[in-house]
Specification:
alpha+beta; 126 residues
Length: 126
């Protein structure tokens, strides 16, 4: 009975470990944001998992951006993390910061203020 449980736990640990290593090696979630005021377009690119949707590319009009939002999230260790979102009319919120970026509240506020000023939209805090 104990042997079956040990094999099951080993399989679970191996799968989780493989998933995490693949996420790191494939650089899932990385990408860039491009804001072009001249053309009025925002381009957001992210890498996903391998497959037909590996490249995630969003092209949005600047006039569809409603606001820049700062939200407080809690991680599994009950630490509070500030996350920066771009609120899009009809599409919801798109995260702009990575959860592992470890920016201070002052840096997040500065980033949000600069982006909101550039896009000429308000800042919301949740």
């Amino acid at each position: 009975m104990s042997w079956d449980r040990d094999v099951f736990l080993w399989d679970c640990r191996s799968l989780i470990s493989s998933y995490l290593w693949c996420t790191i090696l494939w650089n899932v979630g990385s990408g860039y944001d491009r804001f072009d005021r001249k053309e009025g377009i925002v381009c957001i690119f992210r890498w996903g998992f391998p497959g037909k949707n590996r490249r995630i590319f969003l092209r949005l009009l600047m006039k569809d951006i409603q606001s820049i939002r700062i939200a407080v999230k809690e991680d599994i260790y009950a630490r509070r993390i500030l996350v920066l979102y771009m609120e899009i009319r009809g599409q919801g919120a798109i995260p702009l910061t990575r959860t592992d970026e470890n920016l201070t509240p002052r840096e997040i506020e500065q980033k949000a203020a600069e982006l909101a000023y550039f896009l000429r939209v308000p800042i919301e805090v949740f």
